[in-house]
Amino acid sequence: MTSYLHVSSLNDTSFRASETRARLDTLARFLDSAIRVPGTNIRLGADALLNLVPGVGTLTSKGMSAYLIWEARRLGVPMSTLLRMTGNVGVDFAISAVPVVGWVGDVFFRSNLRNMALLRDHLDRFHPGLNTFQR
After folding, report:
1. What DSSP state is assigned to residue 36?
2. pTM value?
3. Which residues contact 128 (CB under 8 A, 6 or more apart)?
4. Are 92 and 62 in contact (CB under 8 A)?
5. Smallest Cα–Cα separation from 73: which of 62, 61, 55, 85?
6. Is the dihedral angle over the CA atoms 84, 56, 68, 43 positive or is it negative?
């Protein structure tokens, strides 16, 4: 009789971390810098656009930001880094709460890209062999 028991290895863990890293990087770019304003170098994303919808838009965008932090926790990011990531989202939320000024501030304060930089730093230290995406 053949056993089909799958034993997880370090390579399997690193591969899953690499897949998650690529998915979260795509999410962060979508939220913070998906669209370039024509004729400028200014980029904005779904976070800024969703914040134009009072209440629901802000909660939706911050919910996606919270998902990024939750995944970082699953990847073993230390609590001090998770707190920094939460602080970035908190500052973004505070900026978004101000109606007109917040919309402009959302374009320039990119909490999700900042959080991805923190996550990349952690993953580069603990899973250095699998840097398969571009920064």
Report:
1. E
2. 0.79
3. none
4. yes
5. 85
6. negative
To which residue do tokens 């800024």 refer?
48
CA distance 17 to 19: 5
Tokens coding 86: 């939460």
Cα 28 from Cα 20, distance rounded (Å): 12
Task: Tell me the residue type at 99.
Answer: P
Question: What is the per-residue pLDDT across 36-86, written as a single tens digit (0 to 9) for each?
Answer: 999 999 898 998 888 888 888 888 999 999 999 999 999 889 999 999 999
CB 89 within 8 A of CB 111: yes
CB atoms within 10 A of CB 116: 24
The two structure tokens encoding residue 120:
């990349």
Distance CA 116, CA 111 (A): 9
